[in-house]
Amino acid sequence: MRSTKPQVLIIDDDELFHMAVKQVLKNHYESHSAFHTDEAKIILKKKRIDLILLDVQMRTPTEGIEFISVLREQYPEILIVMSSGNTDVDTVKTAILKGAHDYVAKDFEPDDLIHTLSKNLNHAKLKERNQQVSFELRHTHSTKHRFIGQSKTILKIKLDIEKIKKTKPNVIIHGKTGSGKEIIARQLRWTHEDGSLAPFIAVDSSTIQSSMAESLLFGHEKGAFTDAKDLRRGIFEEANGGIVYFDEIANMPLEIQSKLLRVLEEKEISRIGSNKTIPLEFQVICATNQNLFEMVSKGLFKEDLLQRLNVIPIQVPSLSERPEDIPLLLNHFLKKYDHSGKKFNVTEETLEILKLYSWPGNVRELSNLINYLTTMCESTEVQPADLPPHIRNITPSPNRDKTGKNFYEEVENFEKNFLYHAYEKSKGNISKMALEVGMDRSHLYTKLKAYQIHFPRT
417 lies in which domain range? Predict the structure, then answer.
């Protein structure tokens, strides 16, 4: 059985050095000896080594230095600490550049050697633990914030999400209440090169009151005002290197919109009570159930802010527009809310009713329904009679005609063809096209992007 002590391999052609090191390490580490690199290769194939104490000079003046490259390629997880009687700075620098982690002189003090080895091993353990935590966080994040669906529109959104994560532009997610806008926002969260999740700071736009807006957004220094008893970092500073998510951005007061615009333009903030500017890097993702273009025309939303935010628009379909996704969502919520382990099943008749229902509350309403059913149903077979009256007593939805065609799909196809022919007719002149179809220019841009019609000339 492998010792629980860390395994150290000493590679050195000096037998006295081996004896000295082993004496120092005997109570802390399990030591192994190799007198040149060829012997070390044999030991490395047989044993799992945690750290190598590697001499610079052995059979040749650079044998140890040259062996670093082999170790880094074949055993990247092993720590390398160089040892040499020659403490030449250039030698140390070369070893570190090739991949060594640290350096000790051969005339070491015992405590110094123990400190150097333990420091590097502890750092490696911490790094490994951080990577494990990062993996667990990413797994939890992806499981908790799954965007469920296989319909055509959902698959396109999933593809768009992967594209957006690569360049991290600002995004506005448009959709009705309960359609899953925040789920999409959290799907846009990326990971840093070290595997850690980028910060994600969610803000309810309607709760940002004018009196405390600057403190909330930018933070404040201790003593900046009467109640500022401690230093506080603002939303943007907390989100540095990550995402600020503004839920229902349409509810943000106009004066605060101006402050947000300034931060987006300058990418720096100053805490209240400080003259020091703090440069920041962040992505802004917003969600709205309102038509922001109409709000701009009514003077309720700043046009220049909308242009800054709406780099990439994502339109989330209502649940009634994607009834083919209902079975997948049902399975997901049944597993989520089945705390008793009964393994509920929805009958075909019940499923058909759920597909015909209009779902004014969208996915959130379906989630609440399944929570209700798993709590209240006596049987594991969910029958139409188990559904609330306002759902089970519906008449066939007008969303589908007698041939089974989906109303929204037909409308979408008509709109796409209509805009395509209008684009051809106007020869890509956006102003002319907007006048001919009676549509606002910004809204027209969004539609053309959504239908992947060749982007028109301005």
Answer: 407-450
Q: Which two tokens stand for residue 54?
A: 């590697």
CB 390 within 8 A of CB 358: no
For residues 21 and 10, the answer to whether their CB atoms sit within 8 Å is yes
Q: Are 322 and 153 in contact (CB under 8 A)?
A: yes
**Residues 340 and 259 grouped into a single domain:** no
Structural domain includes residue 137: no
Whether 430 and 378 map to the same domain: the answer is: no
- Domain assignment present for residue 347? The answer is yes
CA–CA separation, 143 and 170 (whole Å): 24
Instruction: Tell whether 257 and 171 lie within a shared domain.
Output: yes
Residue 372, both tokens? 């209700």
Q: Which of 282, 317, 352 is the last residue of a domain?
A: 317
Mean pLDDT by 10 residues, the chain (458 residues): 75 89 88 91 90 88 87 87 74 80 82 84 61 45 66 91 93 93 91 80 81 81 79 88 92 89 90 88 94 92 94 94 92 88 89 91 93 90 90 61 52 75 82 80 72 58
Question: In which element (H, E) is residue 128 found?
Answer: helix 110-144
Q: Measured between alpha carbons, how far is residue 130 from residues 145, 158, 178, 243, 284 in Å?
A: 22, 29, 35, 21, 27
